[in-house]
Amino acid sequence: MNVAELYDELPIELPGDVMDALASHHAKQVAGEFFLRLMNRDEIIELHECLADLKEFQDILPLWSDDNSNYVGLYCRGPLKNKVCYISHEETDLSPGFRSVSSFLASLEQSSDLDWDDLKKDYPTEADIDTQHLEDDRKCIDELNALLHSHQLDDDYRVQLIYSVMAITPKTDLDSIVKYLDDEDMYVQERACEILGYHRHVPAKEKLREIAQSGMPNGRQAAKGALARIRETRETSKS
């Protein structure tokens, strides 16, 4: 596959550094086996055309496949430009897992036998991040929030935007997503519980208890899981 020619055929222009990274990665894929396979020209074009009619997929270029109808895609436009996400055939969650192609490739090439779920990711963040990344993530969140408040959105598109906001929200800013625990969409409420639980965000504990008792079905279970994680942290700190 000639990487430059491949992207000349698509209605998406990629930065030179991304092109260079993909060319280098393609050579490594030719030389060895990867669980996530860089797709060939025809596969990428066909899948991109299939997804292009769906609003939530319009900014994404699928590039890798696990050959089980799951894909890894690159955001090529919009607030999430250059970030990398997973396209599952079972449950749609297009929030980014990596802040850049180079970050994704570093993780993938270090662990070529791993699936997406097992790769070490940038999002949600597990630790404090440097100042530049913090500024970039906050800028991205501001742009996503502007989209969320700009006009009436299709429900599926709205959910995906909120998923992305929650995924990239820094640990220092978690209070800003507590409001999603009260969202009317049960999947948003569920994801808010999961993210706050992932970060073991103690200030959300009382609200999580409320949801565990009277939230929507998905939210109740997720809230219980989040509370368990918070409880584990507190017990560990005492011992």
From TrEMBL:
User: From which domain of life does this come?
Assistant: Bacteria
> Could you tell me where the Basic and acidic residues compositional bias lies?
229-239
TM ranges are: none
List the residue ranges of the region (Disordered): 216-239
Q: What is this protein called?
A: HEAT repeat domain-containing protein
Q: Which organism is it from?
A: Paenibacillus thiaminolyticus (Bacillus thiaminolyticus)
